[in-house]
Amino acid sequence: xxxxxxxxxxxxxxxxxxxxxxxxxxxxxxxxxxxxxxxxxxxxxxxxxxxxxxxxxxxxxxxxxxxxxxxxxxxxxxxxxxxxxxxxxxxxxxxxxxxxxxxxxxxxxxxxxxxxxxxxxxxxxxxxxxxxxxxxxxxxxxxxxxxxxxxxxxxxxxxxxxxxxxxxxxxxxxxxxxxxxxxxxxxxxxxxxxxxxxxxxxxxxxxxxxxxxxxxxxxxxxxxxxxxxxxxxxxxxxxxxxxxxxxxxxxxxxxxxxxxxxxxxxxxxxxxxxxxxxxxxxxxxxxxxxxxxxxxxxxxxxxxxxxxxxxxxxxxxxxxxxxxxx
Length: 326
Fold this sequence. Notes:
alpha+beta; Yope Regulator, Chain: A; 2 domains; DUF4268
């Protein structure tokens, strides 16, 4: 029996929008827009990216954007084009890399020529493991009469298999310890569960071999962390900008709301001013007895991390919003 035509859904069509109709000027419009909308680039790169400055001077030139991979603390640079790629911008990209020592180099353009995509692939294959080159194609679309929306697409990225081979070779050479391998396994489990249950928390997908991983807080100079450096795991809010006075001022504003934070979290919190250091932090501690080297405990550790961060994040975000409204 045929369904009536009236029962069929009415669907709009996606239509492309010329990028120059959205961002008329590369430096004044696109670069400035991307500076405050770094999450769009974060999603396509799969990292927690904080862009901190536009038009950074590098010698006699101006780098479009510079920022930080919040999970590793490494420098990220971005070069933009609102047209097809050209040799000039490839040269600029390498010049800026030489002047800023980044771990991640991103080239955004409206279209990539095959030879420039091949050049990024070559750089990914022949540079050291800690350096990554990305090509991101910029586009814009709309559905019906909706406002235009950005549509970014990766056209060049590190060769994960090659990087993995390098990593395995390094491990075979004895440069990766059993503890680093255990951290990597734990954080991969945590990240997989975060993306399944709380995808808004982070765009990062690569696990760290360190005793911590970080996630965005929502304001520059502060971030969340999962930490497993001893028998007691912890989640924390770390105020770690380069300005010690700024860190202390934000820490004090949270400290003034200690009762509210501890009530919302449901347990006591550890407020640490960290004398002698620029940074401050607020920590929530887990139970004793965990050993990261015991892989059988990783499931329980990941469960504690997610449950604790869910409560911790909820109440600290409430305080962040309250402070922002003052």
